[in-house]
Amino acid sequence: MKPRYLFPKDYMADPSANVFNDRVYIYPSHDWDSGECFDDDGGHFQMKDYHVLSLDDVMDGEVTDHGVILDVADVPWAEKQMWDNDVVEKDGKYYLVFSAKDYNGVFRLGVAVADRPEGPFKPQGDPIRGSYSIDPCVFKDDDGQIYCYFGGIWGGQLQWYKDNKALKCEHLPEGKEDPLPSRVARMTDDVMQFAEMPRPVLIVDGNGKPLPADDPHRFFEASWMHKYKGKYYFSYSTGDTHYLCYAVGDNPYGPFTYGGVILEPVVGWTTHHSIVEYKGRWYLFHHDCVPSNDTTWLRSVKVMPLSYDEEGRILTMKSE
Predict the structure, then answer these.
(1) Three-state DSSP class for 241?
(2) For the purposes of burial, counting CB atoms within 10 Å of the CB of 260, is it exposed (0-12), middle (13-18) or buried (19 or more)?
């Protein structure tokens, strides 16, 4: 089945899909042409608000745009660049965890709360203590514990940190060095803060050794977590090598054994995704730059069915 462009009326990217109240809600970033010059740190990605889309039939249903659910002007600590976000439900409240730059040019993670999945969301006055970098995914496990996965290099600033502390000089591992890993932290019961210091998310090969920095399948950004048949599937973007990959573990912290490529490279510099089950079928939400003629900062959200083999391996797909 061919992938579906979900919302051709506008440019959106980084779709975080969740099922709430028997309906799929997609929380994307909102691209626009700001006029900023292209650079490797993503200065041309000047997203300034979030929308939410919803539908009740993934491949054929009408898509509803619920409008702006949070604007950077409403976030006291954030100046610009509202990048990826995700939403989790707890006790009837909906918590949007998002990334944005503060007034010192540093990416932080923030929280905004709503009574409904379509918002509007009210932001907290300060970012999450001890947060840094970008691309949060908030995952609620079967026991109700909520974990936040995050991190991205280059413009995502992960290379400026080691052991949760800022470095004086950035360090990008090379060659056979261990790569920069994603991070994970369990959230507090009120979903407002980290309940612990973030831990590294290790992706290892079949012998338990971390994939090296020069492996084209190492982590770059776009963490996502889902469960399938009791296993934890950590998926991510490889950034400059242009794949979506996954690794499998036995608990939310890992380590995660590399499993393979989910999606071959798309039109555009990279892609960003989410994976969700709805009405007994699995789906991959992602984006590309086909409608904007490969303008990398004007992306469009797509979805396509996702399948596993009998051993639980995700079958590799190619977007058209």
Answers:
(1) helix
(2) middle
For residues 163 and 217, give the distance between their C-alpha atoms in angstroms, rounded to a whole number.
Answer: 23
Omega prior to 255 cis, within 30 of 0: yes
- Measured CA to CA in angstroms, residue 21 lies from 25, 47, 147, 256 at distances of 10, 28, 21, 31
- Classify residue 85: in a domain, yes or no: yes
Q: Which of 89, 118, 135, 221 is catalytic?
A: 221
The structural domain count of the chain equals 1
222-252 in b/e form (b: 16+ CB < 10 A) is bbbbbeeeeebbbbbbbbeebbbbbbbbeeb
The DSSP output letter for 314 is: B
Spatial contact of 98 and 148, defined as CB atoms under 8 Å apart: no
Enclosing domain of residue 286:
4-305
Measure the CA–CA gap between 156 and 29, rounded to whole angstroms: 15
| % the chain with pLDDT above 90 | 92
Determine which one of 10, 14, 49, 240 is catalytic: 14
Residue 313 lies in a domain: no
- C-beta of residue 292 within 8 angstroms of C-beta of residue 11: yes
**Residue 221 known to be catalytic:** yes
* Mean pLDDT value across the chain: 96
pTM, two decimals, is 0.97
Q: Is 311 tagged catalytic?
A: no
